[in-house]
Specification:
Helix content of chain A: 40-55%
Oligomer: homotrimer
Number of strands of chain A: 9
Keywords (chains A, B, C): ATP-binding, Kinase, Magnesium, Metal-binding, Nucleotide-binding, Thiamine biosynthesis, Transferase
Function (chains A, B, C): Catalyzes the phosphorylation of the hydroxyl group of 4-methyl-5-beta-hydroxyethylthiazole (THZ).
CATH class of chain A: Alpha Beta
Largest interface: A-B, 37 and 34 residues
GO molecular function, one term (chains A, B, C): hydroxyethylthiazole kinase activity
Radius of gyration of chain A: 17 Å
CATH architecture of chain A: 3-Layer(aba) Sandwich
Structural class of chain A: alpha/beta
Order of helices and strands of chain A: HEHEHEHEHEHHEEEHHHHE
Strand content of chain A: 5-15%
Cofactor (chains A, B, C): Mg(2+)
Shape of chain A: globular
Number of domains of chain A: 1
Pathway (chains A, B, C): Cofactor biosynthesis; thiamine diphosphate biosynthesis; 4-methyl-5-(2-phosphoethyl)-thiazole from 5-(2-hydroxyethyl)-4-methylthiazole: step 1/1
Chain lengths: 273, 273, 273
Amino acid sequence: MLKQCFDNVREKHPLVHNITNYVTVNDVANILLACGGSPIMADDSGEVEDITSICQGLNINIGTLNKNTIPSMFLAGKKANVLGHVVLLDPVGAGASGLRTKTANELVRDIKFTVIRGNISEIRTLMEGTGNTKGVDADLADAVTEENLDETIGKLKAFSEATGSVIAVTGAIDLVADSEKCYVIRNGKPEMGAITGTGCQLSGMMTAFLCANAEQPLEAAAAAVCAMGIAGEIGFEHLKEGEGNSTYRNRIIDAIYHMDGNTLEERAKYELR
Amino acid sequence: MLKQCFDNVREKHPLVHNITNYVTVNDVANILLACGGSPIMADDSGEVEDITSICQGLNINIGTLNKNTIPSMFLAGKKANVLGHVVLLDPVGAGASGLRTKTANELVRDIKFTVIRGNISEIRTLMEGTGNTKGVDADLADAVTEENLDETIGKLKAFSEATGSVIAVTGAIDLVADSEKCYVIRNGKPEMGAITGTGCQLSGMMTAFLCANAEQPLEAAAAAVCAMGIAGEIGFEHLKEGEGNSTYRNRIIDAIYHMDGNTLEERAKYELR
Amino acid sequence: MLKQCFDNVREKHPLVHNITNYVTVNDVANILLACGGSPIMADDSGEVEDITSICQGLNINIGTLNKNTIPSMFLAGKKANVLGHVVLLDPVGAGASGLRTKTANELVRDIKFTVIRGNISEIRTLMEGTGNTKGVDADLADAVTEENLDETIGKLKAFSEATGSVIAVTGAIDLVADSEKCYVIRNGKPEMGAITGTGCQLSGMMTAFLCANAEQPLEAAAAAVCAMGIAGEIGFEHLKEGEGNSTYRNRIIDAIYHMDGNTLEERAKYELR
């Protein structure tokens, strides 16, 4: 199943429209190319409806939102909804400022997202109105642990039920839930946390997976999460002495570039709850 | 001749003003430094005339154009024309949205470009009013092939005649034409297409080549195209097992950093038609 | 002392708010993570006060300033002053345009900076009203040399006295001065000049050092300068055949990632004047 999801991306080369932050945008574009997708970045209100119309999916990331790009997010999201396109929200830093929290909440209210993907603090901000966001990183107090796993899964399923979106939470343990099922994924390396934008990269790549597997968004999102985690493992194995977070970033994208569906299937570590 | 063009860049260290997109801007800056130029990025209408005045050339790239940067492109371009500076247009995504097509056409109408460089779909959009732009990548239907080569060259020469600009089209076969001659260049690797922004990088580097060889823009543009293709070949040869598109990006810029005029001269594969 | 400064960063994980340019922003984020800090980038006037309030320090870099981000710099800087936070100014390109010079001067007038860090041309523009800025790089005519070293140090101490800020000037010889003392630092490699944004990276990392050592800004700034220079040396030692400025960029950040306080202490080359 995971294999098929990835094979579909390689075969269909989905074109993904990204309204994303300027911090990690280059890595998002390169990982989209690495997985078999094709990226286009456009954030001016004068063109986002045109651009999203020629794409198969839309990735909205609020990492460096501003007065000009916020209206573009709504315009593009609504247009994508009308066209029946895949739409993903990455609520970067929701909880860190009033503007981010308000914008993320209004996006969730006005646009039907296929997937909402964030760290646990961002998702708690959206689903509970409270989260201990430490800037753009999740707060330890919010962390998903073996102890609170079932409780957290229950909340994610309820939030999925309420929004109609698949909810993907990434961290030490990754969770991908719809209203009935939750993938609990244990791939990845803690060292990925020392790279800026692995979450943004995952959101971009996940949008391509969703485009190429529009009938099964839960599985597609889980496959993308597994692929990112496995790339983190493979990239780490390839690190040489003296190489640190900057080279690790390249090696993760490189690992996606060389990954095939079989590797994804074999190395994925997940259970369903 | 190619050697001299490159040597001039290394000797003159031209300062290049870039109004460019935020996706690939870092790579553009680093390749400009790698080839011997010096980059400055500035896109606010309150300073672009000042900035372009202290530079030798201007690189306008519409990859993430917006309401604020579009007027800056016109201001800087007109100022550069008044000063007799080199100006290059990279019409990223022309054809993908009305805003991009309109902006690119108006730039070509109002500013005298030394070179217009794009993929074949972008250039067709400008020269024929139609192109099958697939986002920021050329569409297969537009591809330059051995079969349509002479016809395409004829069109590029006519477009050069009409605009007074050298026209550079990059893809599997690269073409650099003025109204009378066309360089047909066969360097490069198809894997370069899996890196975001090799076109943007080429435009930045080409502007430095044009600055340092202002009397012969056709040759300077061809030399930059050859250098980029050869860097793609050298970078590919240096790839180690497991390295993919992200590391390849670095290795291409590294190859420009170490390239000298002799290597450029020896490895360039081109004919004149 | 340098060791303790670095150890404090690793222990306290300071959260740094960056209003910075889109050219080098990704490298700034990654070097902040590499040294033990945590970055957040936010530049909209609607959120910068919120964001800076949850951080321990603020890094203002005017590298691609514009109409929207300039007011944000003032809002965030004033808020950080009220909160008693560390604030650093990197006046990228001051002297290259009227807008940059004016903005940098007004920032220095209205905000109390813990440190002002730039190249010698930028700092001369601020302290003498004149500098030979060559775009974003210092002009050779301004270079700090053994001959003008004492004179330059005298000027920096006076500028520090006048502004109440530590003044850090980086180049072939690095200087970090308050009104009484000046660190003269001779780490680093000339090849760092072929990488875009080593100065921006240093400013980001220095802000983390200042946050973690708020009682001794002069020493913290000097420690960050030494760390960057040593990383440049270590990164250079790790370069393999064929690797150039793009890979070198990664290796410098990697070197910060693996550096510890002892290495910093042992390899730092400085004197006090």
